[in-house]
Write a structure and sequence with these properties.
Structural class: alpha/beta
Order of helices and strands: EEHHHHEHHEEEEEEEEEEEHH
Shape: globular
Number of helices: 8
Low-confidence stretches: 1-6
Helix content: 25-40%
Strand content: 35-45%
Number of strands: 14
Radius of gyration: 18 Å
Distance between the termini: 13 Å
Mean pLDDT: 91
Length: 253
């Protein structure tokens, strides 16, 4: 079974936001955001400021979806991390949603799931797809973000394996007992913790508050990364090769 945006159980319209509810939630969490070392450690380097966040939180869009949210979410991933924190505070999750098969979030779309989301299979975000999960996200198979950009953000994330050239944001941490490849150097993953098996992120600087893995490839060493990922060291598109390997293996399972 393969799902697409047309078969997803949450409402396809943009997620409604009540301005006063967002402002009240932000007022409750603002102090913790200001004191969040993970959020603020590299803020100045990328142009994130609390003053700009204050301004945005006073003017939330009426609906969070494609075409309505980019001004609110644009800029470094710090803004999307802060928005996730506010949305989790403002909209306690319901659910859960249980999906089976390969779930595909189409490119150029923004989806907000106000619940725990559990996928028995793979979760694939096509290019320019954005997914906010206001509860926990659990994927038994591969969590894949297609290049160039995609983003998945959740209170916590668990997956079997993973590959992305985009953003992964998790307030309470990421757990991946298999192998996760964060490829390319255009975007950053940000999570309060990362626990797992093999972590390959030598091409970029991810922000993890606590790290506990069996093996990490963080030196600029393509042959070591290829061995860890089980792909050819001569492969010109290592991220694409590993992504296709994950999805083909899962498809045969």
């Amino acid at each position: 079974m393969v799902s697409s945006s047309h078969g997803l159980p949450w409402h396809p319209a943009a997620f409604p936001l009540a301005a006063q509810q967002v402002k009240a939630a932000y007022a409750r969490v603002r102090a913790s955001l200001v004191d969040d070392a993970l959020l603020m450690q590299d803020a100045a380097r990328y142009g994130f400021t609390i003053e700009e966040l204050d301004r945005r939180m006073q003017q939330p869009p009426a609906r969070l979806g494609s075409g309505t949210s980019w001004d609110w979410l644009d800029g470094p991933e710090h803004f999307r991390w802060a928005v996730l924190r506010v949305l989790v505070e403002a909209c306690p999750p319901a659910g859960p949603y249980d999906l089976a098969g390969r779930v595909v979030i189409p490119g150029g779309t923004v989806h907000v799931v106000g619940a725990d989301l559990r996928v028995s299979g793979d979760l694939v975000l096509e290019e320019q797809a954005v997914l906010f999960v206001l509860g926990g996200l659990s994927v038994t198979g591969a969590l894949v973000g297609r290049p160039d950009y995609s983003m998945v953000a959740a209170r916590e994330i668990e997956c079997g394996d993973g590959a992305t050239g985009g953003e992964i944001l998790a307030l309470d941490g990421i757990r991946c007992p298999g192998t996760f490849y964060f490829g390319h150097n255009d975007y950053t993953a940000r999570a309060s913790s990362y626990d797992g098996g093999v972590l390959v992120d030598f091409e970029r600087v991810n922000a993890f508050g606590r790290l506990n893995v069996r093996e990490r490839v963080s030196d600029w060493d393509f042959p070591a990364a290829a061995r860890a990922l089980g792909v050819s060291a001569d492969e010109g598109d290592m991220l694409g090769a590993y992504t296709e390997r994950l999805l083909s293996e899962r498809g045969r399972a």
